[in-house]
Amino acid sequence: MQRMRLWKTGWQLLKTSSEGATKQVNKFSSSSRSYSHFPPQGLNSFGLLFDIDGVLVRGRTPIPAAKQIFRNLVDKNGKYKVPVVFVTNAGNCMRQTKAEHLSHLLETEVSPDQVMLSHSPLRMFSHFHKMCVLVSGQGPVEEVAHNLGFQDVVTVDMLREAYPLLDVVDHNRRPKDSIPSTRGLRPIDAVILFGEPIRWETNLQLIVDVLLTSGSPDNNWSSVRYPHIPVLACNMDLLWMAEAKNPRFGHGMFLVCLESLYKKVTGYDLKYEALIGKPSVVTYNYAELLIRQQAERLGWTTPVKRLYAIGDNPMADIYGANLYNSHLQAYRRTKTQQQAKSGGECADPHPATADDTHKMMSDELGVHGAEGRPEGCSSILVCTGVYSRDQQELPSDPTHTVTEQRIFHGHRDFRFDPSLTQPSFVVQDVKEAVELVFQQEGWPLE
């Protein structure tokens, strides 16, 4: 899997930006709450990571089991019993808007600091924030970009208006009668792909133009300008579940088209500076931070011992949770080896190399030693979304998954390990998932 190369320049922004998000105030804000819940005596603490589409809602329709179980996740005052973060690969809105929407659908208060959109970690990519960036997607993409810290933003619509001869696939949008003049823009330094756009042909054409001209689409194409300017992509979901019986194309499908077109034209692979959103480890690092902050608001004084990620997509939710679990295990082994070595004990002669990502995260969060991090992350697959027991079969024996030939719906740059698509648990819906977690942890759930 391609590593995220910008942690050293952006991680320090992660904690401060997410803390800043908690100060947003709307009618569902938690800023006025006074949490006083503690884990039952003698029991471990844990946190819940919920996917949204296919787990809690189908399009605009809430899944009945979701409304039912969320009534049990809050007390009579509407305060959460355990830390809850909603982790979605959607990214066509602001966190506050998504929080209000979830609050309405679930009939339970959700605050912005409980919501993590696919683009949320871009807050920490600070050295891009002063660059001129082209943004692709739908919804208030310009507002979203500014909210994340980007100061100089160009949308695809702004680009096509400045260069009216570039967008000619739709005959009705071609210039009529006379050739309009070009209104040049400042050179574009980077491209940010927030999510699937509405007019794919326009976005594909103009993004390729920008990449082949080093950010100045009024110039001639040149495939020798390689590698191209940086590209950051959010949300790699090939498919997602709405109200239709079958899955719909996601942003991952748009990325497949862009990658194929770029290689067809140039002969080179499109390169990403960063891939963000599930199943990327950077997304789960950020989610862990939000869970820790939720636990602090609950008044918990002990670290969260385990995370449970509930999702409907084996290649995004399950793969990502299992991948993060393996990183947590590697982190704990490395810390144990380092402590043994510093204590004069005999350490593993071939210790695991400490990952820079984990080191910087632990330093920034004030986590010293493996005891400050979760022990693991369990994946729970529900059957109300992309995955259906009637249409797909998960291997019953995890040892056979490594050699099994399966269709890979993940992103091109992620090494496919079939064993990571094997969930820790498979349940019918989110209600069964939460009940299973509380039973596993020995917590009461009224």
From TrEMBL:
Keyword set includes Signal: yes
GO process terms (BP): glycerophospholipid biosynthetic process
InterPro entries, per database record: CDP-alcohol_PTase-I, HAD-like_sf, HAD-SF_hydro_IIA, HAD-SF_hydro_IIA_CECR5, HAD_sf
Keywords for this protein: Signal
GO cellular component terms given for this protein: mitochondrion
Cleaved signal peptide residues: none
Region (Disordered): 336-356
Keyword Signal in record: yes
Pfam families (UniProt xref): Hydrolase_6
Entry superkingdom: Eukaryota
Family, as annotated: Belongs to the HAD-like hydrolase superfamily.
PANTHER family in the cross-refs: CDP-DIACYLGLYCEROL--GLYCEROL-3-PHOSPHATE 3-PHOSPHATIDYLTRANSFERASE-RELATED (PTHR14269), HALOACID DEHALOGENASE-LIKE HYDROLASE DOMAIN-CONTAINING 5 (PTHR14269:SF17)
Protein's UniProt name: Haloacid dehalogenase-like hydrolase domain-containing 5
The encoding gene: hdhd5
